[in-house]
Amino acid sequence: MKHKTLLTIASLLFTQLFVSSALAHHSFSAEFDIDKPISLSGKVTRMQWSNPHGWIYIDVENEDGSLTNWALETSAANNLIRRGWKRTHLVAGTVIQVQGFQARNGSNTANIRGIVLEDGSRLFSGNADELSK
Question: Who wins on pLDDT, 128 or 46?
């Protein structure tokens, strides 16, 4: 009886963990608009290497000289590393160009397809690229 109770509790906990992580993730089209492509250039303020998505934060200079900080969603950190991204590519102050799709809510948030570094090399994020074909 004890064994059955422990097995039931373990199953419930496993199910809870699985459901929680599945609900935490979102689809591209739920948050980003394929009809709102963007191209930005700015200085990296921070790179968050995380899962299920990494985030790059950049300051983009506006026409009036003010700065707007953008939050740029990438694929997971382990995916970026497999695609050749290195932590040294995105230190604060690095100027990058990005292409992607703006958030549906109009905020300064985007899902990016990739970046171009100052030396002209390109890094692919792997998020929305398949959607734009």
Answer: 46
What is the CATH classification number for the domain harbouring 107? Answer: 2.40.50.140
The number of folded domains in the chain is 1
Choose between 131 and 48: higher pLDDT: 48
Closest CA to 126 of 49, 51, 73: 73
Is residue 45 assigned to a domain? yes
Residue whose pair of structure tokens reads 């492509």 in the numeric block: 37
Unique residue bearing structure tokens 């300064």: 108
Q: Where are the beta strands (DSSP E) in the chain?
A: 32-48, 55-61, 67-73, 95-103, 109-116, 122-124
Q: Give the C-alpha distances (Å, rounded to integers) separating 64 from 43, 44, 61, 74, 106.
A: 17, 20, 8, 29, 20
Cα 64 to the center of its chain, rounded Å:
28
DSSP designation for 65: S
